[in-house]
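Quick question about two entries, pasted in order.
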Amino acid sequence: MKHIVVLGGGFGGLAFTQRFRHERVKITLVDQTNHHLFQPLLYQVATAGLTMPDVSEPLRSVFSGRPDVSCRMDRVTAIDLKQRLVRLENGVLEYDYLVIAMGAVTGYFGNPEWESHAVGLKSLRDAMEIRRRVLTAFEHAETEEDPERAKVLKTIVVIGGGPSGVEMAGALAELAYRVFRKDFRNINPADARIILIHSRDRVLNYFPDPLPQRALKSLERLGVEVMLESRVEDIGQEQVTVGGQVIRAGTIVWTAGVVANPVTQTLGTPLDKRGRIEVEPDASLPGYPEVFALGDICSLSDAAGQQVPGVAPAATQMGKHVAELILQDVAAGKIRASEDRPAFTYLDKGTMATIGRSKAVAFAGRWKLSGLMAWLAWLAVHLMFLIGFRNRVSVLFHWIYSYTNYRSGARIIVDLENKK
C-alpha cells in the first residue's frame, strides 16, 4: 500500500482527500484541530451572527465512510524531505507522497508584539476572542461612570481594507448600530465608532472599478469611518497610532496581512518573502516530485503565467489537480518528474465581498455586480460551498432570523482563557 500524508484539513487538503480514491493507497490527514473550518464566514462568528458549529465540520465525520482515510489531530513540527518523514508533536509519519496544505497564519509585518493587542482572524479561537472583546467592551461601557472611558470602550478599529476587513467592519457596524440599539439602558450604541484603517488609496484595491468606490459608499452609509492611505505605525494596549495620531479603542482587529505557516522554514527549499513555498507549475516542490504544496502556503504561477491567489477556490482547484496527478503516477507505477506532468491551470470564478445587509460587491471576468443582486449571489455561493447539510440549514435559519428581526442569536460571551 502506498501512503499519502495530507497536512491540513482546509479547502486544499479537504478537496484533495475527497477527490483521491485508490484501492492501493491509504491517506493520513493531519490537522492541529479536529475540524474543517469554512473561513469565508468566520467573521460572522466573530460578530455574533453565527455559532462555531455553523462554520465547521468534524473531519472524522466528513470521512466516516472512507476506511482508506485516517484522521489525526496533531501539530506538525518539521518536515524531512530527504528522509520522507513528517515530524509531529506526538510521533513521526513516513510517506510516499506528501501534500502540504497547512495554509497561512496572521502576520504583523515584523511586529509580533502587536499580536496581544490586535486579534487576527484565522481560527475559531480568534473569532471567539474578537466576539468576547467586543461584547465585553460594551458590557463594561454600560456600567462605566467616566464618559471618556465609555467612549473608548465603544470604539472598534479594524486594520486592513481587503475583503475580510470590509466584511468585518460592515458586520460590526450593523451589530453596534442595529442589533445593540435595544439591548442597553445607560449607553447609546449609536454613539459607537467603527473605524476601518487601510494603507491603500481604496478598499478592496484589487477589485475592478467602480466596485471599490461602491463598497466605500456602502461602508460610510453604515456609519463606518474609513481612513485610506493610512499606515499603522504602532499598536499598544487599547490604542493604534496612525500618521502620528493616537486612536483609543476598546477592540482592535487585524486583517491586514498573513504569512505562510512557519513549518515551511524546516523544508530547506526556496521560499518567497512571505514564507510561502515556491513550487513548480504542477504544484510540486523543486527536486521533490512526490511532495506538493496547495493553497496559501505556496507561491505558484499557473500554466497561463498568472500568479494563483491565496483564496479558497484556488486551493480547492489545486487539491483536485494534485489528486489527479498522483492518481496518474500510481497508474503509471512511478513518480513522474514535474516537467512530465500537466501544469496547474487556475480558473478564476470571480470574487465577492459583502458589506452588510443587502449590500455586496462581486465580479467574475467582465461581469460586475453590486447592491442587492451581488448580496443574493454572495448568500447562494456561500451556502452552496458550506460543508454538511446541517450547516447549510443552520446558517440559512440564522440569516433569515437576523434579516427579518435585526437580531443576532449568538451574543454569548465565553472567556476561553479564564476557567472560572
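Here is the second entry:
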Amino acid sequence: MAATMIEANDSIVTAICRNPQGLAEMLVQCQDAAIQIGTYLESFGEKYAHLINILETYCENVYQISAGLSDVNMCIKLSKKIKRQLIEFQNCIQCEMPDDKREVVFLPYKASMWDSLESVWKAADADENTDVYVIPIPYYDKNPDGSLREEHYEGDLYPKYVPVTSYWEYDFEMRRPDIIFIHNAYDNANHVTSVHPFFYSENLKKFTDRLVYIPYFVLGEIEPNDKAAVEEMAHFCTIPGIFYADKVIVQSEGMRQIYINVLTEEMCQEKSSKKEKEIRQYWKNKIDGSGSPKFDKVFDARKEELEIPEEWKKIIKKPDGTWKKIILYNTTISSLLKYNERMLRKVESVLRIFFENREEIALLWRPHPLIESTLISMRPQLCEKYKEIKDEYVKGGWGIYDDTSDLNRAIILCDGYYGDQSSVVQMYRQMGKPIMLQNMNVM
C-alpha cells in the first residue's frame, strides 16, 4: 500500500505541472487510503503509534496541497516532503511488519468445544511469524419457529492461558486475516442454536482467502462401504460450511473417504453436467483426514494435574480417604429426540441404580450442554419433567452434576463410560477405558 501511495504522489507532481484541476479526486483517495491504514494500525494498540503519526502528518500535507493548488511551487515542495514521509513509512513497515507474517483467527462459539481447535491454536501461537487471535463468538437459542431467542457469549469461560479478543473489537473487513478457523459450520441449518449471522461461513468467506472448518465432534468410525451407517451420518457431510470452507479437517482417513463419497454424490445430482471424476478430485483436495484436535487434548492431559472442585472430592472420596470408581454418565440430544418420554424414564432408572451403589461408585452426570435449549425448541412438552429430574439429582448431592465448559476434565477423571453413543465414546475408546452403552429397552 505504501508503494502505491508513493506512485500516486509522483503522479500528483506531474499533474501539478500539467493539469492541477484534475487532482482533487486523487488527493481524496490518498487521504482515504492513509485513514484506512491508520485505522488498521490502531487495532494493534500503542505499538505502531509512530507510524500513525507519520500518516497524520501525511494527511495534513495532502490537505495543504488540495487547498493551494494554484501555488505550483508550494505544491511541489510539499510533494517532495510527502515522498520522504512515505519512504520512511514504507521502511518502517518492512522492518516492523514483515510481509511473511500471517494473521490467523480462531472463532469458537462454545467454550466446552474449544478442544476441537486448541492444538491447532497452540501450533499457530508458537510460530513467531504468525499473529493469532482467539475470538469467541455469540450464539443464540432458537424458538420453535426458527427465530433467534436468548444470546449466549462464553468468552470468560476459556482456559486462563488462552488470550481472548472481543468479537466487537476485531474489524474483519479491515484486517482480512489470512486464515479463519471455525468449528461450527451449520450457519442457519441448525434447529436448536445459531451463531450470530455475521459469523455464518458464507459471510466469513468474504473476509479471508482461507476458511478452515474442523468439526467440534468426532464420530464412531465406520467402513466407507457400509451404506446404512454412512446414510445415518451423511447429514454431517452436507452442512453449509463444508461447501464454503477452503479446507475441511476430519478425524481420520476413513472418515475423509466417506465425506468425499457423500459430497461427490451430492454434487453429481445437482450438477449433472460435470464429470464425476472432476468433482471427486475437487473434494479430495478439500477434505483432509489428518485427525481431530480433540484427541490431542485428551492425550496431553494428566489426571494428577486436574483441578477438581472440593464439592466433587466429597462425593468421590470414601470415608477411609480412598477414591471410589468414577463413572461418566453421558446423555445426548439425539437420544432424547428419538426416545422422548422413554428417555426420561431411562435417566430416572439409571440415577436410581447409581444412588443405590453410591458408597462404591461416584456418578458424574454430564448431559449435552444444549439439551435444555433443544427441549424448549423441539420438545417443549418434556421440559418440565426433565428439569424436575435434574433438579432432584443436583439437590440430592450424592452425585456430580457437570455443566462446566471443561469436557476433558470429566473424560480424564472418570474410570469408565456409560450412556449414549456420542463423540465422547470415541475419546474413551482412544484412551482404552471401558465403555458401556445404555439400552433404552432395559430399565
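Reply: Residues 72-96 form the longest helix (25 residues). The longest strand covers residues 325-331. Hope that helps.
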